[in-house]
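Input chain follows. Return structure tokens only.
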Amino acid sequence: MTLPQPITWTPDGIHILDQTLLPQEERYLTLDTVAGLAEAISLLRVRGAPLIGIAGAYGVALAARQAAGTASGREEALAAIERAGAELVVTRPTAVNLRWAIERMLVVARAATGDAPALAAALETEALAIHAEDREMCARIGRYGAAFVPDGATVLTHCNAGALATGGMGTALAPIYTAHAAGRRVRVVADETRPLLQGSRLTAWELARAGVDVTVIADNMAASRLRRGDIAAIFVGADRIAANGDTANKIGTYPLALAARAHGVPFYVAAPRSTFDLAIETGDDIPIEERVATEVTALHGTRTAPEGVGAWNPAFDVTPAELVTAFITDVGVLGAGEIGRALRGA
């Protein structure tokens, strides 16, 4: 099974797979400035909540590396690191992993002793640790979630929450990959995920590349497919989960959860601890990013709506906790009522 490596820390900078070009072109970029990374995150060259958290951590480490060669001392280097964190954290407001990773890096920076090069070394070590931890968290999610993917199952997913969105095998796709690696016959139906088609462009690309049977459907076909009765379960990822279990994920997740409830299909949210925001009580407090209208009014640069017509383009919606069958996390399978007890202090 071959999975893509969407981000790598290198001596020359941050090596990323440009996801805006998939599936037509597999092109890698090396980003050597914080501004370049911020732009890549904003433009979705790097995307997926866990992955942009890793990218943010590497961005702070990059700022520290560069400051080690230019700053007059530790305090000047620390100021440059703080500025980098502030620039990166605002690029995607909904996904909590970005803020979580940057704040973790800044805690290390403020506590580190020694000169600017020592500070850079400490932050490089921390960023690599965040990446490695995410890889292991994905593997654990895969092991816990594979129990819900029996041999011969057909499952449905929305957006992309696989290897392209994380530091490992993914969140929502991790149970599928784990079951596939164990020899189970698994079929995946992937919502195309309007308006940017992360399901058809990215999920279908990486599943097919890994040898998993995948079929793409338009988002508005999902309820009809569930009515056929051949979908065993739905797996989605998340960008932020409130303390009560309300879940922000790619726009279109909420109506999919409603359709799942109507047809009695289990609806699973797969996410690592870093995606849970226990500081907010409900989904009403999750900031929802709104993106440019042209993502809706045009497709691949060709306008599909009349000139002068605008668009409402929220990147995410919030699925109420009562519609979620269970949360598949790196510490086990949880009900909404178990989130706080299981994750506080974990």
